[in-house]
Amino acid sequence: MKYLARKIVFLDIDGVVNTLQITEDLQPKYYTEYDEKVGNEQAVRWLNKLCLESGAHIVISSSWRHAGLEVCSNCLYNSGLDKKIKIIDKTPTYFFKDRGYEIKCWLKEHPEVYQFVILDDDSDMGSLADHLVKCDGTKGFLAEEYYRATEILDDFTSYLKALNNEFSKD
User: Fold this and answer.
1) Average pLDDT over residues 49-76
2) Which contacts of 64-69 are long-range, i.e. CB under 8 A and separated by 24 or more positions?
3) What is the reported pLDDT for 167?
4) CATH number of 7-163: 3.40.50, 3.40.1000, 1.10.10, 2.30.30?
């Protein structure tokens, strides 16, 4: 399935928008997909800002994707993700391959995407490392990461490379 999105945020959930929280009764809580929300609503607000300002759509690259796209979407929307932001897909799973490989496979099927950023608390991105914004897994996606992600999505050279590739097909 092809999408009209030209900018994509590949989103890991744990360590990015889901971090360890303290409950009202002072107990540590780490949310799972069964809680129907994620734990770091501040990180979700920064994600809102990134997607709304850039026009990017989200593709789930997290292990949460195994619970299904609808479950992931509901967890994010229940945690404050703006409903104007589209969660359009999830990356494929290839056992014994790194996340960068899975993202690369998804991108190969979606040549309409010319700019993307990867939000993750891990570094297994291989040749896509230049597109990674590595989050501190205890803090998540906050201001510093937002500004770095904006730089990557606004990098005009990515757009020019994509245009060059499209014209070279003719």
Assistant:
1) 94
2) 64/13, 64/14, 64/33, 65/90, 65/91, 65/93, 66/93, 67/33
3) 43
4) 3.40.50
